Amino acid sequence: MKTIIIKPREKFSILSEIKEIFRFKDLFYFLSWRDIKVRYKQTSIGITWAIFQPFMTMVIFSIFFGNFAKMPSDGVPYPIFVYIGLLIWEFFSSALNNASGSMINNQSIVTKVYFPRLILPISSIITNFVDFLISSVVLVGLMIYYGYTPKLAGLTILPILLLITFMAAIGIGLFLSAINVKYRDVRYILPFFIQILMFLTPVIYPASIAGKYSKILALNPMTGVINAARAAILGTTPINWILLLISAIASFFFLIIGIIFFKRMERYFADVI
């Protein structure tokens, strides 16, 4: 009788992890499609919420920060300015929240079968891409209302911006999901952390307001992404490639650190969860 022993690899390799995820691509597809169906199938609240949340936030910010506080908006109507920032920010914050809770939300399969655990946090973010596309409809409506035409050449950079956002969210999310397995307080601390981080990100104000400290602000990956998204879509200011590069490097750093930490903690998940 043949005995098969399953044990972790002696050495960690990102390339081997990618191959392992690809080998379980059917499971990845199933988990991703499951989350999408749960959110959108036979319900209108999922689609409505994807539009309602950023839209109402935009309205409130426009009233208080645009009208009352007279926050600068790089010469464009404040509702368009802030909505572009909210569109990217909602994608990042929701993806971060989903990834951080992915292990706890799927603990029933974590303790029963073997599969690359990285699949769980990564697949949990797929629904956020759908939310992003749905929420973009409001931006199209705002640009039509205010008579703005998006720069088609600039739109080509949006996939790169989403990739940088994805790397930041999954990197930090992997770190938090590993901690969340042992310390369940993460689910209570994370919303407060995300709320504070939003005000350290140029969502309601332009990145240029930081002046000489803008490069320090760019260590927050969303700074360069949101700044570049506004420049690419509106075309009113040139893309600050230095800020975007700093944010891209920071996102890649978070991704590598998150993967390494997650893999080191992975062997204890089934015992602790």
TrEMBL record:
<dbReference type="GO" id="GO:0140359">
    <property type="term" value="F:ABC-type transporter activity"/>
</dbReference>
<keyword id="KW-0472">Membrane</keyword>
<keyword id="KW-0813">Transport</keyword>
<dbReference type="InterPro" id="IPR047817">
    <property type="entry name" value="ABC2_TM_bact-type"/>
</dbReference>
<dbReference type="GO" id="GO:0005886">
    <property type="term" value="C:plasma membrane"/>
</dbReference>
<protein>
    <recommendedName>
        <fullName>Transport permease protein</fullName>
    </recommendedName>
</protein>
<feature type="transmembrane region" description="Helical">
    <location>
        <begin position="118"/>
        <end position="146"/>
    </location>
</feature>
<feature type="transmembrane region" description="Helical">
    <location>
        <begin position="47"/>
        <end position="68"/>
    </location>
</feature>
<feature type="domain" description="ABC transmembrane type-2">
    <location>
        <begin position="45"/>
        <end position="265"/>
    </location>
</feature>
<keyword id="KW-0812">Transmembrane</keyword>
<feature type="transmembrane region" description="Helical">
    <location>
        <begin position="241"/>
        <end position="262"/>
    </location>
</feature>
<feature type="transmembrane region" description="Helical">
    <location>
        <begin position="188"/>
        <end position="205"/>
    </location>
</feature>
<feature type="transmembrane region" description="Helical">
    <location>
        <begin position="152"/>
        <end position="176"/>
    </location>
</feature>
<feature type="transmembrane region" description="Helical">
    <location>
        <begin position="80"/>
        <end position="97"/>
    </location>
</feature>
<dbReference type="GO" id="GO:0015920">
    <property type="term" value="P:lipopolysaccharide transport"/>
</dbReference>
<comment type="similarity">
    <text>Belongs to the ABC-2 integral membrane protein family.</text>
</comment>
<keyword id="KW-1003">Cell membrane</keyword>
<dbReference type="Pfam" id="PF01061">
    <property type="entry name" value="ABC2_membrane"/>
</dbReference>
<dbReference type="InterPro" id="IPR013525">
    <property type="entry name" value="ABC2_TM"/>
</dbReference>
<keyword id="KW-0997">Cell inner membrane</keyword>
<keyword id="KW-1133">Transmembrane helix</keyword>
